[in-house]
Design goal:
single chain; 2 domains; two-stranded antiparallel sheet; 6 strands; CSC1/OSCA1-like 7TM region domain-containing protein
């Protein structure tokens, strides 16, 4: 309805900029701007209504899932770190003494965590060698003889790998016995006879010294990220700093492909950068391919490598479970996407050359109001399956998007000389943040820990179930490090299929 940019030629819509169909084309001071003003309020109210209902629904589904689930080891177990040890006792003895004294009616058992980084490397080497051996055995027609070393003798690879695998398994057994005897960490998985007992131990401080007997919820046994326990406190702390620096560098370096992609979407800018392509770009087909398809393809290819990098950085950050690593990686990817695909794309296309805006922060909403409606690229967010636990991240990202929309809208109405609309929009981000604070108080605790009434009710329902005795027996060994379990990859190695010491010895 506006003529702010130029007249629309409806006979040649394919070559017209989409700016003509945005708020940029609405005339300054036009009454039509009040429609956009109303839309901001309507969209905000509608999204907040949907967010509330979704938070409420997912919260109830989490409770319903808990009631219908079978007993799980992580529901009865906590992780305890910072265990104080006296000169005359081991970590295991300290744990048993402490919880027997202060949790006598609910304490069941514990499993001390050992340092198994060296052992884990040996097991990984055995797995790799076993795969090579199976591949050679499944392809008998292949040439299985090779010279070992530069002037070494010619050997049968199957026999060579087989002997090497037996040696590695022997090293694994020796290392397992050494680990079980000496390499204890000051951390242990402590299991209880009830979910409520585990929750009490988790939520209440266990010592007058807050750095000792530090408790946290235990992940599922298969979800434990065992390499974390091989790191010292100082190494973990340094790793966190390294990860922060690495994320910042990755975000900065990623600006290079973003700027290139944004330049490809702008035909006139592309002709300025690469004048020798001017004759090619005049051809409609090549112009559409280069400015339409190529930028999105390049950006998507670069984005594909971001989640694996973020997951690797999160894995060295000190998390105790794979799900926590994925959750941290999800947050990193989210903020990376917000910055590089929204702000960086906008600034590189329209505002990056105007360095003065960074010296005047109050002008940023106005600059965004001009830049955002102007060749924005739609990029879908990566998806993570998290069974509901990641919903608070989704909720917070939506709240952030709403507040950002409000800032952009205020800037737009300021530029369009509709100061009344800008003033009337100021309460909206405040109300949105208050709504978010209410949701955090109302629903977020359910995503952190289950309520006491839910835990007690579930414990009472299962108190008379005969299968619980068998479950408790399995719970005692549920959190044993897989690296300490017996392995067998070599053929005819029945004498090597178990550690030198039995599981009862450690």
């Amino acid at each position: 309805m506006g003529t702010q940019l130029h007249e629309i030629d409806f006979t040649d819509l394919s070559n017209n900029s989409l700016d003509l169909f945005t708020i940029s084309n609405v005339n300054i001071g036009s009454k039509w701007l009040w429609i956009h003003f109303s839309a901001v309020y309507i969209v905000t109210i509608f999204i907040c209504y949907q967010l509330y209902n979704e938070y409420k629904y997912i919260s109830s589904e989490r409770i319903a899932y808990f009631y219908s689930s079978k007993p799980q080891p992580h529901q009865f177990t906590i992780l305890v770190r910072g265990i104080p040890v006296s000169v005359c006792s081991s970590v295991s003895e300290s744990v048993e003494t402490f919880f027997t004294e202060f949790h006598p009616t609910t304490y069941l058992s514990h499993m001390v965590v050992h340092r198994t980084s060296k052992l884990r490397n040996l097991i990984n080497e055995a797995k790799t060698l076993s795969k090579r051996l199976l591949h050679l055995q499944s392809e008998p027609s292949q040439h299985t003889y090779r010279h070992i070393g530069l002037f070494g003798q010619r050997v049968d690879l199957v026999d060579h790998y087989g002997k090497k695998l037996v040696d590695i398994e022997q090293s694994v057994r020796l290392e397992q016995s050494n680990v079980s005897l000496a390499e204890e960490t000051r951390a242990a998985f402590v299991s209880f006879k009830s979910r409520y007992g585990a929750a009490i131990a988790f939520h209440l401080p266990q010592s007058t010294n807050p750095t000792q007997w530090v408790t946290e919820q235990a992940p599922e046994p298969d979800d434990v990220y065992w390499p974390f326990f091989s790191s010292s406190f100082m190494r973990t702390w340094i790793s966190k700093l390294v990860v922060i620096v690495a994320c910042i560098l990755l975000t900065i370096l990623f600006l290079i492909p973003v700027v290139v992609v944004q330049g490809l979407t702008n035909l006139s800018q592309l002709e300025t950068w690469l004048p020798f392509l001017k004759s090619i770009l005049t051809i409609t087909f090549f112009g559409q391919v280069i400015t339409g398809y190529l930028p999105n393809l390049i950006l998507q290819l670069f984005l594909k490598i971001v989640p694996p990098i973020m997951e690797f950085l999160s894995s060295i950050q000190g998390y105790i479970s794979h799900s926590d690593i994925e959750k941290s990686a999800c947050k990193k990817v989210l903020w990376f996407t917000i910055w590089n695909i929204f702000f960086a794309t906008v600034f590189s296309g329209s505002v990056l050359s105007k360095v003065s805006i960074f010296l005047e922060p109050k002008n940023i909403p106005a600059k965004l109001a001009v830049a955002v409606p102007a060749q924005f690229i739609n990029v879908y967010m990566p998806k993570y399956e998290t069974a509901g636990k990641f919903w608070p991240i989704v909720h917070n990202s939506m709240i952030f998007s709403l507040v950002l929309m409000h800032a952009i809208a205020i800037g737009i109405f300021t530029l369009k000389k509709l100061s009344i609309a800008s003033t009337l929009l100021f309460p909206l981000p405040v109300l949105t943040l208050l709504f978010n604070a209410y949701c955090r108080k109302r629903f977020l605790p359910i995503f952190i820990a289950y309520p006491a009434e839910v835990l007690i009710k579930k414990d009472k329902e299962e108190a008379s179930v005969p299968a619980m005795a068998e479950f408790y027996d399995k719970l005692v060994t549920a959190y044993r490090d897989p690296a300490l379990m017996p392995i067998q990859y070599s053929v005819n190695s029945e004498s090597l299929n178990r550690p030198l010491m039995s599981s009862a010895d450690f």
